Amino acid sequence: MLKVKEQVPENLHESTRIYLGATAGMRLLRLQNETAAHEVLESIQSYFKSQPFDFRGAQIISGQEEGVYGWITANYIMGNFLEKNLWHMWVHPHGVDTTGALDLGGASTQISFVSGEKMEPNASDTVQVSLYGYTYTLYTHSFQCYGRNEAEKKFLAMLLQSSPTETNISNPCYPRGYSTSFDLGHVFGSLCTEKQRPDNYNPYDIVTFTGTGDPRLCREKVASVFDFKACQEQDACSFDGIYQPKVQGPFVAFAGFYYTASALNLSGSFSLMSFNSSSWDFCRHAWIELPSLLPRFDEVYARSYCFSAHYIYHLLVNGYKFTEETWPQIRFEKEVGNSSISWSLGYMLSLTNQIPAGSTLIRLPIQPPLFMGILAFFTAIALLCLAFLLYLCLAFRTKGRSENAFEQAVDSD
Fold first, then answer.
1. GO biological process annotations for this chain's record (predicted)?
2. Annotation says 83 is catalytic
3. Is the pTM of this model over 0.70?
4. Is domain 63-374 classified as CATH 3.30.420.150?
């Protein structure tokens, strides 16, 4: 809050609104212990009420809301909702596709996009979003327990279940030469891994994971985090039996997607082959080599980038059904311009009514391409008329000079 107080002029403190939204981590806590979640929110609200700002409350937003807000943020800062026309009026851009949003957090992951195909009637993942007088039919789904952190816990739990020894576990996704120990509460203390707990579970027992740096085995084992069989080979299904229309159009992948790609020395748009090649190369490096490879080295993140890369592969390719042809339509970005891509901006825009559902925008009576065509036609006619007038003027002058020359010749005779 000290930085906020420094950035906001003191005379504006009382009129500066503060909104607080909590996402998947708090959603999990509320499911696991509603009283604890309520106490956390109460404590946070008490703190912010003591600050000199206009605090408007804290709430836990749903996964669907998180997905929608991420989509709004991405398209808002990309200018897909509004643009200035020739008269500097804000209008809805003609022929501009919206961009799908892929968000990878710690406890959940979201996919949101406008589908051109007819979606299932009354589908719970279909949302009507009205912005500036336009209605978008948005598919959005939030996968609880499939954020990067919770997914890795599920992966570690799976390794424990399939290991012949209960204390020393080989982890093909950890770098070669790396070893770390956890108590079982770290792995099984989450609601996401509750069903995987062993019968003799003791949260204080210690287990050691040793990295082998095997990208092939890592990819193979990470696939078991997902339940792809639940789709029963249906095309309109991602995983865990969740309905999803075919992905189409451009997408922006942010948060955990971006940070993992960045660790692989990738950003923006690139091919699936490049992603696979970079993943394989990174996973083959020994632990001792990683500090020189990563721009910012942090043990917790560095040990897990290999897992994250293969997890993202399965999520996007086998889950969301991106192919070699459609993968390059994904841009892995942290920000657009100077604006970070996250659900929080969309959340703020919604709460402060900065994106109204109704439209006060100027709408042309005809579509821009037709308007430009008509404008070009009349411009061409005007130029032809001008050219004809110039021709007449020159012809008149030439005729006048000829007559004068003739008269002078007659007079001289």
1. nucleoside diphosphate catabolic process
2. no
3. yes
4. yes
